[in-house]
Write a structure and sequence with these properties.
The structure is a homodimer of 343-residue chains. Helix content of chain A is 44%, strand content 16%. With 343 residues, chain A is an alpha/beta fold. In chain A, helix 3 packs parallel to helix 4. At the A-B interface, helix 7, helix 8 and helix 9 of A face helix 7, helix 8 and helix 9 of B.
Chain lengths: 343, 343
């Protein structure tokens, strides 16, 4: 198995990515090769520092350009030799089984959708972000912003794909519960588009539990929550900031007195446990579901652990044949209620 | 000043509300009278228990019916003598200066909009929820779900109203920063409706700082974040659940060993500080801005402290003449760019 990764897609440069690759090589026993895509002259010394120079499971694919964080998708046209375009090329031309895109998310989505195309009969992809829940199991929120709007059938397709992902890669059991994000639980809530999506989801080959509210993302009520990309993006960004704000407040509160400072010292193990539970890194990057190839999207601020997890999830997705499974669900769906016909 | 409150609108019955009223009478020095609306035979003994029987600043307005939490807005028709309808009547007929609605939020909004009507030239209202930020100042998110959709001019009107509220009731300075919730900061992000809202906000009499992302609600980047009610509702419900999930994890993590248990004991002061910062109760209920009367919406699970704060915010809104100030901003707006003309 060959997993390709954008080695230039980190705010702090290649070192955290290379460190994540080292962790992966150390922990993974599938024998997968990691293909680092980026500037060879930059990557060589970083690999040497990490003791990975000449490693039999590491290769470099040279790319002279980098899509910077602030650059718009349209700039891809002038960056034909950027690491993200080369990364997509590795999968497209069959030299890699999966890709891990880090950094400029909009550019990564644009390059991947354009380069790999979609699983038939789809015409769009959705980012599936697993978040931790009170009950311990992850909940996949889809779409986190690949498309800001979503028609009813897109929401239904997201549900089908994320269910397969939840079941086979996140191991959440045979029938992950799928909720439709809404402003109330009763059927009939929300606008016309959501009411149509509700009906499509009832007929879809998923364990649809009806409308759910924002709180149900975290309370363990479902394994999959479906929403449009605008809502998913704003909720997840708000959540991420809220979690880190609470952590910052906790640190401040512990500085209040000597007693609380000693309390903090004795609490270190508890903090470690908490951090592990909150950490999105735990679950690895977010798959871009619907494209014709395995693509995991990671943060531009990914820690080595997050990079490791993204590679692990990429490998596991290839191993279980994620896209083949999704494709067969889409065929089932097409047989039952023609995709694209109902809405 | 007379402040009316729905005394039946709590999942745990009237006691937490009456306790909140007691706190208000104890702490408030405006001399305001609190009018409890609900079943007299239920309220009398609760007032007696709280030592408020015959209190000179407490009155009861009898209402025989209650809108239960699960009942739909349409049921208001059969509940002419419900506490929420009577509550609105108190303000409408000038017997109270402000109302605090607790419990069934959808019914409260429906009854209030129908009963009080809107501040001219508006045709809708928005729920403004103040949330705590990393920087300490509150950030008002509007709309939290009075209307699931919003046209560009509605978003603009929300911004104008919430700015006045932030400035005059939350005391956030002369020019609260207003952000438009979007999936990226660059102008031109989002759909047509958001781009139009962006333009309207640039011309509005508010300190518009441009598009903001979900994280900017909590990181202290603005004092007001404007969004449609679907987005606001799902984000705030997700945030509320996430905060309480993190707290639950922290409790669990502290149970991990004797060391962490002692750590927890020594950390109690830090927890109190943290809880105070997180607590939405701190800021009181959320005003329904745009209706022709002061209306504060509270949770059906409001603690006595939250009830106290809702009454305090209601009193302060009356004291500063909130709706008069909003009305004059709307006049300014109408003079500059006619309300309702641009979108």
């Amino acid at each position: 198995m060959r997993l390709a990764i954008d080695a230039m897609g980190n705010d702090a440069g290649p070192p955290p990515i290379v460190e994540g690759v080292r962790l992966f090589l150390e922990r993974d026993d599938s024998g997968a090769t990691v293909v680092l895509v980026g500037r060879e002259e930059v990557l060589r010394p970083v690999l040497a520092d990490a003791g990975l120079e000449g490693h039999e499971r590491v290769e470099i694919v040279h790319a002279t350009q980098v899509m910077e964080m602030h650059e718009k998708v349209a700039h891809l046209r002038e960056k034909r030799d950027s690491s993200i375009i080369r990364l997509v090329g590795e999968v497209k031309e069959g030299r890699a089984d999966a890709m891990v895109a880090l950094g400029n998310t909009a550019a990564a989505i644009g390059a991947t959708c354009l380069g790999l195309g979609f699983l038939k009969p789809l015409h769009r992809a959705g980012i599936a972000v697993p978040v931790p829940t009170r009950e311990g199991h992850p909940c996949v929120v889809i779409d986190m912003g690949a498309n800001t709007c979503a028609k009813p059938r897109h929401l239904r397709d997201y549900a089908v794909m994320a269910s397969v992902y939840s079941r086979r890669v996140l191991h959440t059991g045979d029938a992950p519960r799928v909720g439709l994000l809404n402003v109330g639980e009763e059927a009939g809530k929300g606008n016309k588009s959501l009411r149509e999506a509700y009906e499509l989801l009832q007929q879809a080959p998923v364990n649809f539990v009806g409308n759910v509210e924002g709180g149900d993302i975290y309370n363990g009520a479902c394994e999959v929550v479906v929403c449009d990309g605008f809502t998913g993006n704003t909720i997840l960004k708000a959540s991420e900031e809220l979690a880190s704000t609470v952590a910052a407040w906790l640190r401040e509160a512990y500085g209040a007195s000597w007693v609380t400072k000693i309390g903090a010292l004795l609490s270190r193990r508890a903090f470690r446990i908490l951090k592990k539970r909150i950490s999105y890194a735990e679950y690895g990057g977010a798959p871009l579901l619907g494209v014709d190839g395995v693509c995991i999207i990671g943060h531009g601020r990914s820690s080595p652990d997050a990079v490791y997890n993204a590679l692990r999830v990429a490998g596991e997705s290839v191993h279980v044949g994620l896209n083949g499974l999704i494709r067969s669900e889409l065929v089932t769906l097409a047989a039952g209620s023609p995709v694209g016909s109902a809405a």
